């Protein structure tokens, strides 16, 4: 009985340390407000930079390549021609920084079959609000057809590959 209690406590501790909370996030409805703000204008000008096979997405690039939620409020319309994985992260989040090389490694292996993206939620607060992100890292697995599947918290390579194969 004591062994099970200790194992349970260890598992709870692991869960608590593998995700960063995003306190103070205001979650808006899917589709959000279509008014353009100063932050939106700055985001639209963000460059399309790639790190290995993982492309950094600005809000404008997200709307072009993944989902234009303003044109289809409340409805998921995927714009990609192959499945995608989107890593929502922040530079201050240690679990996010531990997950990044895992995603990079998988992108190097599966990059011809799946598009890999990442979104810094501090630089792209509109995307964090639209997806109601309150804990990171969050991997969003996007099948070519159907709804995206979010997974929060640090994941090992085998778990990420298993989730990836479920959307391929």
Automatic annotation (TrEMBL):
Gene3D superfamilies: Glutaredoxin. It comes from the Bacteria. Its EC number is 4.1.1.-. GO terms for molecular function: lyase activity; protein-disulfide reductase activity. One of its GO terms (cellular component) is cytosol. InterPro entries: Thioredoxin-like_sf, Thioredoxin_domain. GO terms for biological process: cell redox homeostasis. Residues 36-168 form the Thioredoxin domain. Residues 1-21 form the signal peptide. Pfam families: Thioredoxin (PF00085). The keyword Lyase applies. Keywords: Lyase, Signal. This is Putative thioredoxin. It comes from Segatella buccae ATCC 33574. The gene is ubiD.
